[in-house]
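Q: Sequence in, structure out?
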Amino acid sequence: MLNYTRRSPHDRSLLMKLVGTKASPYVRKIRVILAEKNLPHEFVEESAWTADTKVPTFNPLNKVPALVMDDGEAIYDSTVISEYLDAISGGGLVPPDPAQRARARRNEALGNGLADAGITARLEGQRDKAKQEEAWIKRQMGKVHAAIDAISRHLGSQQYLGGARPNVGDIGCACALFWLEFRMPDIKWRETHANLKGWAERMESRPSFRATIPS
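A: Exactly. Output:
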């Protein structure tokens, strides 16, 4: 278990610990938000896939990311964590207007769903060929391509999904699409969706994204 020492009830950001792996698109989303908000924290590298994983200590579902708050309690999943981090840092990534907030959350969910489908397809494809369910892989990849189309449609001619400035939806979708390039480079979404290419370049030029590129 993590070593934890309580300091002041007002120093939440100084005491936070993020548990996860750098290659995870969900973890990267939180790392980007932490960087965007300049929130000090400790990153604890922990995989949910190893035999001796400590992840269930923080999330009984054995999934990352998990965030240890100032009182030692852990919260999960990435959507819950993003809400919390935005709230304690003065807002800005989650719009206060109900309709805009719903769109931002929808786009964040779209990014999560894209990552879910891509990871599921990739894991199935790593099984022994004779045991793979081709129909299942095809179904997941259909979701991947539908999500890419939807992100492009929601973006339209805007600079960002959030309009003039990026919000949590932009961060979630960007982390999912960049994960695709990292794990499934044969999906050339920048070539098939011209508006996503420019948007992606704007997102990856931000220091928060440059600092969290998975190796």
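Residues 95 and 102 are 9 Å apart (CA to CA).
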